[in-house]
Amino acid sequence: MVSTQQMLAFSAMALAIIVIPGPTVLFVVGRALAHGRTTAMTSVVGNELGVLALTAAVAFGVGSIVERSVLVFTTLKLVGAAYIVYLGVQAFRHRHSLGEAMGGTGEEGRGLRRDLWQGFTVGVTNPKTMVFFAAVLPQFVDRDLGHVPLQMLVFGVIFAVIALLCDSVWGLAAGTARAWFARSPRRLAAVGGTGGLMMIGLGVTIAATGRKD
């Protein structure tokens, strides 16, 4: 259905884009600094599930609507940005309680399902990813092979797997650095607050940038 040459070409392009730190990396690092490795890794998984959902949307035509409609694009962008800002504000507000959260069983008390859902929400409300898929995925599709939506889904899975591996490295690295700060409640509060501010800044940046025409 999808040739090896197609997959290799798309994988090379996807890797070149993913390895360059962008909004997703900043989000993951911010989550790691604010809440730790478990939350960061769960957020990564949720984010990639959101990417798969966007791939399905593009494959079945929703991406073209976002690409052509300024209103839909702007609405999705603002919703996603507002949600990231909300998560950042929550992390900043609760930065002084991080030491207590790391006691006992550690980060599990936050709730993996909630972290997964938050990561998914950020991933699925990223209109830039949807527009990117709408513009790029068709370039790798071989229409002579048929099953075009399925081919796009395959490429989306490849993209999500590469992103999962790369983003996980960032999350683990930031989470490990946070573990050193955790030896001091004051340092931990500072790094947790920094993670929250990073997410707030990311949300504001996403809201303020992008197409306006």
What is the fold's blueprint, element by element?
Blueprint: H1 4-18, H2 23-35, H3 37-59, H4 62-68, H5 70-93, H6 98-101, H7 112-124, H8 127-140, H9 148-181, H10 185-208
Number of DSSP-assigned strands: 0
Mean of residue pLDDT? 76
Residues in helices, as a percent range: over 70%
Strand content: under 5%
What can be said about the biggest beta sheet? Answer: none
Shape: globular
Distance between the termini: 38 Å
Q: What would you call the structural class?
A: mainly alpha
Q: How many alpha or pi helices?
A: 10
Describe the protein's architecture and organization:
The protein has 213 residues and is mainly α. 80% of the residues lie in helices and 0% in strands. It is built from 10 helices and no strands. It is globular and about 60 Å long. About 6% of the residues have low confidence.
Explain briefly what this protein structure is.
This protein is mainly alpha-helical.
Characteristic terms for this protein:
mainly alpha, globular, 80% helix, 213 residues
